[in-house]
């Protein structure tokens, strides 16, 4: 039994016990889908921000130090 079927059965049982407006399950599904889209969009934006920050760090700071060979000239000196 799927989660959707269990929820639909729960809504039907609740409707028998107390008055529930028609279409409550459909509203629930729409809200859940909307929330899923919001979470997916936020995760996508966070991923873009992290990748952008990584590129900026590589271009501005980390990449320059790695190509210069920091500390390499001191090994041969006594």
What would you say this structure looks like, in words?
- This protein has one domain (3-66).
- The chain is mainly α.
- The chain is rod-shaped, with a radius of gyration of 28 Å.
- The chain is 77% helix and 0% strand.
Q: What's a concise summary of this model?
A:
By secondary structure, the chain is an all-alpha fold. It contains two helices and no strands.
Draw up the topology in text.
Elements: H1 3-17, H2 24-68
Keywords for this entry:
78 residues; mainly alpha
Extended strand count: 0
The shape, in one word, is rod-shaped
From the helix content, strand content and strand pairing, which structural class follows? mainly alpha
Provide the number of structural domains. 1
The helix-strand sequence is HH
The DSSP helix count reads 2
Unreliable sequence segments:
none
Name the beta content range: under 5%
- Overall pLDDT: 82
Q: Main sheet, how many strands, which sense, barrel?
A: none
**Which bin fits the share of residues in helices?**
over 70%
Rg on CA atoms, Å: 28 Å
Span between termini:
76 Å
């Amino acid at each position: 039994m799927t989660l959707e079927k269990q929820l639909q059965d729960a809504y039907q049982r609740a409707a028998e016990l107390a008055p529930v407006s028609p279409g409550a399950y459909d509203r629930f599904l729409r809200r859940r889908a909307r929330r899923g889209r919001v979470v997916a969009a936020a995760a996508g934006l966070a991923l873009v921000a992290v990748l952008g920050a990584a590129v900026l760090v590589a271009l501005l700071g980390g990449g320059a130090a790695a190509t210069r060979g920091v500390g390499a000239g001191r090994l041969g000196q006594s």
